[in-house]
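Hello everyone,

My group is preparing for a crystallization screen and wants a predicted model to guide construct design. The compound we'll soak is zinc ion. Before spending weeks at the bench, it would help to have a computed complex in hand. I've included the protein sequence and the ligand's SMILES below. Output in structure-token form would be ideal because that's what our pipeline reads.
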Amino acid sequence: MAARTFLGTLRLATLLAVLFFVALGAWLDRARSRDWNDTLRVTVYPISDSADAGVRAYAAALQAGDFADVESFFLDEASGYGIALEQPVRIRVSHAVQDLPPALPDRAGPLTIALWSLRLRYFAARTAWKDPLPAPDIQVFALYSRLGPGSAAMPDSVGLSKGLIALTHLYGDAAAAGSNQVVLAHEVLHTLGATDKYDVATGQPLVPEGLGEQDRQPLYPQDFGEIMAGRIATSAHAAVVADSLEQMLVGPVTALEIGWPP
Ligand SMILES: [Zn+2]
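Reply:
Good plan to model first. Here are the tokens for the complex, ready for your pipeline.
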């Protein structure tokens, strides 16, 4: 009985130590990723989430150049906030991942989500270790399927601010390249601490922080959207998905959250 208690205590102490180092590591990563002294290295791992031959071929052929718009988006927006880096974000593409990352369970409670996030971090660490490319600052697992971004069956994309990992669900078709990049930039910003700027119930951008043009007169329709709102408000009750990052910008609240000077 005494031995069992001792083992139990030892197990608990080990678990607490592991959690402490995971938390400390995440805090250090996050502090470093938001100082904007160096280029943030992002690796995108395209993964086909479909048996469809077209989707598989599309995901397999993706190269860094296919994400050039995400790099220019970060360059344009960061320079607008006085960040002098020549390349705030650099994207590389790795095809080193063959198996699917652990899926976020449906309607999960806080404990299930915590365990899932540990499993995803373990998956990400193993991936970085197997990958011939140097370990990046941010890892994006990009799952391509036949479902469109607005589709009800499409699982939510997530960006973990603790661990600098994003899991994005994208449309496996060249026609959706622009809207895919909007989703990708949004999730990368989550990993840097940005919060959503839309109403969870309706998807409508929040006013004013979710609008691209907060001072516009009259306010609607907006021509630009705030990246963390994800959509462009055409009226107080309607919004459209952006076709490209050129229609999106980083608003002042998001900028503050990710450490860009006001
Ligand atoms: Zn979001």
